Amino acid sequence: MTDVEEALAPLSARSVMLSMLLGSHPDRMSAAELVRAGEHFGIPAATSRVALTRAVAAGDLQRDAGDYVLGERLAARQRRQDEAVLDAETGWDGTWEMAVVVVAGRTGAERAALRDRLASYRLAELREGVWTRPANLRRPTEYADEEVLSTFAVRPDEDAAALAARLWDLDSWAHQGRALLTRLAATTDPALRLAVAAHVVRQLAADPLLPAALLPGDWPAAAMRTAYAGYQDELRSLSVGVGAASGVR
Fold first, then answer.
1. pTM of the model
2. Sequence spans of domains, the chain
3. I need a labelling partner for 109 at 20 to 30 A (CA). Which of 29, 84, 179, 241 fits?
4. Cis, bond preceding 156 (omega within 30 deg of 0)
5. How far apart are CA 98 and CA 142, in angstroms?
6. Are 65 and 111 in contact (CB under 8 A)?
7. Angle 7-187-88 (CA atoms, 0-180°, nearest 5)?
8. Which residue, among 206, 183, 207, 178, has the nearest Cα to 194 in the 3D structure?
9. Contact at 8 Å (CB) between 126 and 168?
């Protein structure tokens, strides 16, 4: 089964609750708003309340002044998600960021955590312990505070487009992105549409955000951002309607 086919399955109640908050700015909603939103997606109120309780117990959500807000892990995911949806690029002069692991003897858990952190900054592993990407993003290089890393600004001798194609599977990413765009445009059922939109933003979160000069033709990321921004407008409209119907805000 492909990822696009999987996107046809409605999200679980818990995933719906989390998706509503991940796509909401500000990222807080009352219990009444979330329950009524769940009903819009075919989820019974009791099921939504159980899902919210379990999400809080797992740390995915927190309670704040009577509202639900994202937990720390999902708040970080939302920031990464927003970076993918918004224009995060700046002018590129051909320089690349590079981070090199210079400390040996770390545990497997420490190595895995560092890999996850570097990947979250959209670096790719050139070889074991050497991570790099074009220096075209506005975000700060906060990974440089890792004591096990030395960081550099470099210019590769290799053709930059060829290097990018070696580090990221750009053709597969673009193929999947175009398939998701087609599916989102063709899906009208609210629950299935939310599921497809969740796959769209997950795909965008994996966008390496490369300079245009390094991308293959017909790169679908801009169209995907536009489509997802339109879907966020749908969610905001739903949230406003839910708030009015429940007498909240």
1. 0.80
2. 96-154
3. 84
4. no
5. 13
6. no
7. 70
8. 183
9. no
